[in-house]
Amino acid sequence: MFLSFLVFFLIFSLLILLHELGHFLAAKKSGVRVDEFGFGFPPKLFGKKIKGTEYSLNLIPFGGFVRIPGSEYEQADKKDKGNFANKKPKTKIFILTSGIFMNFLLAMVLYYTLFIANGFKSMPLFMVDNFSFKYGKPEITKNVIVYSQNNIFKSGDRILYVQEELNPKSDIYPQTPEEVINFIAGKKDANLVFKVGNVWDSNTRFVTAKTHFDSALNRFVVGIGLGESVKIFYKHPLERVFAPFLHSFNIFSYSGSIFKLLFRASLKTGDATPVAGALTGPVGIFFIVEALVKIGGVSAVMAVVDFMALLSLSLAVMNIIPFPGLDGGHLVFAVYEGIVKKSPPLNFMRWVSTGGMTVLIVLAILIAFKDFFMFR
Questions:
Q1: Are 196 and 295 in contact (CB under 8 A)?
Q2: Which residues form the Peptidase M50 domain (predicted)?
């Protein structure tokens, strides 16, 4: 648990600090005053002022922040040339997008590092739907993959065969998730023996799990999610040059396809559970990190780095969404100012941004509760 928390803490802190560093460097380059660059969040432990900027160390050691005058739509002195509010729209856009750029850059560097180390094959992707990737060549791994774990199975386990403990002749060597599901479905309160490997390494082991009845599914289960796994091979020289970008496109295209299926399922049933289940916040991310750390060894390191790249890319994409409170929401105001040559009223921008942040905070709290009860 401690190692998982440490890895989770380092990942989130680095992602947030790099994002804020992007804003900081762009502001400095543009002649915008930065009052504070904080490591962690208040209350403040101590700080030191260097060239007009206070560098502070704060009690809550999680990420960081920059304090740029005028960026929160407070009243600004028109004569203050270092105030963000008094800068031209193109300067504001440069500063606002620099945090996004840093997260995107980190994702590309991490992906490229993994591709070089792994022969330009991606880390395993768990498939829950038939999907045709536009770039690279998908290589389907043999056997059935566990993508939703419990205290017996680990994420990424490959089910090589399964048998009933008291009936060795009942063994099957499954090639599809349906074969395992159908085998388990009719085994009432039975102890089942599984031989499993893992997509991350070549080790195998035996585990025993007892079936129980799931009233929602109306069949016996052992409490795991099953699917297939693919590795995308970027074979051609040009693909290898642009592999991080092509892989990012593949990942988000696949994610969009899955979300579309879940959204349709929610509309059809009138139940928001499928879509809500797909949204994950820091609590859910911690449980995912914990599952990856449990893999152990070099495989765990590579899996964590791959997940970190995905998080960094997701953070970049999320922040460019034109929603109030996000960088994308601030960008809308800057672009508007550039087009009409006049910024919207301060009170309006402040009200919209505050409202957007309130919605985001409430949503984050709801997702945190959902993640806790779903992953615990």
A1: no
A2: 8-363
Q: For residue 65, which of 85, 40, 88, 82 has the smallest C-alpha distance?
A: 40
Domains and CATH numbers, the chain: 137-233 (2.30.42.10)
Percent of the chain with pLDDT over 90: 47
198-227 per-position pLDDT tens digit: 776 667 889 898 998 888 778 888 887 777
Mean pLDDT of 52-70: 91
120-176 pLDDT, tens digit per residue, is: 999 888 776 677 889 999 887 766 777 666 678 876 788 888 988 877 777 888 888
Mean of the pLDDT values across residues 7-29?
94
